[in-house]
Design a protein that fits this description.
Elements: H1 3-24, E1 32-37, E2 42-47, E3 62-67, H2 73-82, H3 87-94, E4 101-104, E5 109-119, E6 124-134, E7 138-143, H4 151-159, H5 169-204, H6 208-240, H7 251-313, H8 329-350
Parallel strand pairs: 3-7
Antiparallel strand pairs: 1-2, 1-3, 4-5, 5-6, 6-7
Helix pairs in contact: 2-3, 5-6, 5-7, 6-7, 7-8
């Protein structure tokens, strides 16, 4: 990357940071979590000083450094300088609108993931970009904010569960990707539950609010699909690539999560078909309800057609008409009209039109 492009990236991030500082007049909190481990020992600390992570660059143990910010350009530049990272990595970390991808820079691998959450209260999917740098002895992850789906991995490291303490940095990255994919299954399950509830509501009583929720879920599924499809390419490139940072012993694990990614894609496609079916149910329910209303109105109108004919005859006001001056004429006409209505209702019942 040219010096001009680097300066443009810096200006963009600094401008965003100044905007937030003016708005809140507070310095952004920075949380750096360091977990350094080997087969026998684990060291874990939380700090706000970026200088403390530099000593872990060339250690013989595995170091996982997690930062809960991508907005502090000063810290990002210091990390870029001390770990000899490519300038393009900084640009992609700052731009949180990246699609999942992988870049091989020789001595490091840069991976972009999309961490998804389903907000049940607002019935919406929230997204966070996670950028991961894989080095020989270290893994650096960048999150937009504090909070993630990696707590089970931290517990496995602390308690020496599984192979994570016995393997290298590539296995740790596999664990991070696996955690993100497992959370996709959780998100899909919650969306599936919302679709089932929505389907029940639509069957009972369809309304425009349900239709809006159907379209919202369709957009969320499309968004989820766009986040998962590129991840399949990322994992595939990791398992068939020629990077020295990926050990052969990790390839089977990458194949496993590749299969999980395919399963996530299949589940998303299934939910898309289900939500399309729910939309058809809504339209069918609405049409059926409209047909029932039209049926009732048609029956009422049909009954009143002969009654309107009778009243029309006696409303012509000719001077010489039968029953005009008859004392029982009015009650007789009303009785005939009532009889006509009853007879028509009986006929409709027998023909099962109502």
């Amino acid at each position: 990357m040219s010096k001009t492009m680097k300066n443009n990236v810096s200006k963009k991030v600094i401008s965003s940071r100044n905007h937030h500082e003016k708005k809140g007049n507070r310095k952004e909190d920075i949380k750096i979590t360091i977990i350094d481990y080997g087969k026998k020992n684990v060291h874990e600390e939380v700090t706000e000083s970026v200088e403390k992570i530099f000593i872990y660059k060339n250690t013989q143990t595995v170091t996982w450094i997690n930062l809960s910010t991508v907005k502090n350009i000063k810290i990002l530049k210091e990390i870029e300088k001390h770990f000899n990272l490519h300038p393009l990595i900084l640009e992609d970390i700052v731009d949180t609108g990246q699609r999942p991808k992988i870049k091989d820079f020789g001595d490091s691998l840069f991976i972009v993931l999309k961490m998804l959450y389903y907000d049940k209260d607002n019935s919406t999917i929230k997204i966070e970009q996670v950028s991961v740098i894989l080095g020989k002895n270290y893994v650096i992850s960048f999150q937009e904010k504090e909070g993630d789906v990696f707590d089970p991995i931290r517990e496995r490291i602390r308690n020496n569960i599984g192979n994570v303490r016995k393997a290298g940095t590539d296995y740790l990255v596999y664990c991070l990707i696996d955690a993100v994919i497992d959370n996709y299954f959780t998100t899909i399950e919650k969306i599936g539950e919302e679709i089932e509830k929505l389907e029940d509501k639509i069957i009972r009583r369809p309304n425009p609010a349900n239709l809006r929720l159907v379209h919202k879920l369709k957009r969320d599924l499309v968004f989820l699909r766009k986040s998962v499809w590129p991840l399949r390419e990322v994992i595939n490139n990791m398992q068939i690539g020629e990077s020295n940072l990926i050990c052969k012993s990790t390839i089977p694990y990458l194949r496993d999560i590749y299969g999980h990614t395919i399963q996530v894609i299949d589940n998303v496609e299934t939910l898309r078909e289900i939500i399309a079916g729910v939309l058809d149910i809504y339209l069918s329910s609405t049409n059926n309800r409209m047909n029932e209303i039209m049926k009732v109105l048609t029956i009422i109108a049909t009954i009143f057609i002969p009654l309107t004919f009778v009243t029309g005859i006696y409303g012509m006001n000719f001077k010489f008409m039968p029953e005009i001056k008859w004392f029982w004429g009015y009650p007789a006409v009303l009785s005939i009209m009532l009889l006509i209505g009853v007879v028509m209702l009986i006929i409709f019942k027998k023909k099962k039109w109502m």
